[in-house]
Write a structure and sequence with these properties.
Number of strands: 0
Strand content: under 5%
Radius of gyration: 25 Å
Largest sheet: none
Distance between the termini: 58 Å
Shape: flat
Helix content: 40-55%
Order of helices and strands: HH
Number of helices: 2
């Protein structure tokens, strides 16, 4: 009889992964000397400014049409979603 090792004791398959530790990423020190903003950070912030501007534009259009309840609900949901994404 040949000795065949069971599959579980062999090397892991291609699709399997070892569990990773999730460590918090420390923020940059705001009092760091010579600290500058990167273009990627500016683009990230600009994206959210545009998203809030679009939500405000839709709010104004709905209020002008007299749909105040729908405007407030939609704007509140949009702002919640945008800020939740930004803070994560």
């Amino acid at each position: 009889m040949s000795s065949v090792t069971p599959r579980a004791s062999r090397a892991p398959r291609l699709g399997s992964r070892a569990p990773r530790l999730r460590l918090p990423i420390p923020g940059r020190d705001p009092h760091e000397a010579g600290r500058v903003v990167t273009p990627l950070e500016l683009l990230y912030d600009l994206t959210f400014v545009v998203a809030i501007g679009i939500a405000a534009d839709h709010l104004a259009e709905y209020v002008a049409e007299g749909l105040v309840a729908a405007a407030v609900i939609g704007f509140s949901w949009a702002i919640f979603s945008i800020l939740n994404t930004w803070l994560d």
